[in-house]
Amino acid sequence: MKKTINVLIFLMLAVSGLYAQEFSLHVRCYISDTLYSHPVIFGYDTAATDGYDGTKWFGNEIPGGEQEWPSPGLGQDVDFQMGGQALNRVYYSPIDIRHKPSGNRFSLQYEIDLLCAGSKSARLEWDKSLIPPIIHHIYLSSSYIQQPRLDMVKTSEFIVPITDTSGLYDGAGKMILTLYYNEDSLAAVGTDEQSTQTMIYPSVLSTNDHLNLWLGSDALVTIQMFDMIGRQISVNSINAIQGINQLPRMSLTPGMYETVVRDNLLGVVRCSQKIIVR
């Protein structure tokens, strides 16, 4: 009898460990201070795949576990799930446990789709103490503006500014989470005229013969340049492409300038960068 019990305990442990993930984080959504029905969960494991293949991760919490769900329906007031449209994966599920790459350092991206049409407020909450030190950053950004809004490692709440951001994080806009395992993102470098490096986030830098504008996506933008007392030196609108856009070099006297890049469609600032001309 004792032997049978031991075998059953072993089998229970084996089954429970079958779908255990190496790292995961629950993110809960509150709409107008009311908890939405389920959390979204993201993480990684060496045994996972990068799709939603029906593996029952957290099946005890969310029926069916990690499996593809229907996309948010038109006219639906509230929906909160992991997605993939902005990342070119086109899946929906409450759970996204990604395959852990081999190697000592890597980065992974996830997408959260939030639909809370008609709501006056929404916020996301998670427990940052559950993020191990090996994860240096989990940056949350908009799919429209890829510069980080916050680092989930350093805070446990994101109040979604639904009413004043033209849908950057809610509805058409998606939240992009970038997880850095045992590594840091590229830091912004000095933007003097000797620099030939490109930023990981939208920024403008000067080189010897032109200005380089780096954007994470195609956009119609207006580029304004100001001197340090606030006088506008120039203004140009261009159809920018994803990546590096070369702009004509202007005759600038030595000094410091402020360059502001505005998205004409969204009406928001894509980046603001100081340039030193020697």
The counted number of beta strands is 18
Number of helices: 1
Q: Overall mean pLDDT score?
A: 76
Low-pLDDT segments, ≥5 res: 1-18, 186-203
Helix/strand class: mainly beta
User: What is the succession of H and E elements?
Assistant: HEEEEEEEEEEEEEEEEEE
Percent of residues in helices:
under 10%
Biggest sheet statistics: 6 strands, mixed
Radius of gyration: 23 Å
CA-CA gap between termini: 85 Å
Shape from CA axes?
Answer: elongated
Beta-strand content bin: 35-45%
Structure description:
The chain has 278 residues and is mainly beta. The protein has one helix and 18 strands. The longest helix is centred in the first third of the chain and has 17 residues, at 2-18. It is elongated, with a radius of gyration of 23 Å. The protein starts with a helix and ends with a strand. Residues 1-18 and 186-203 have low confidence and may be disordered.
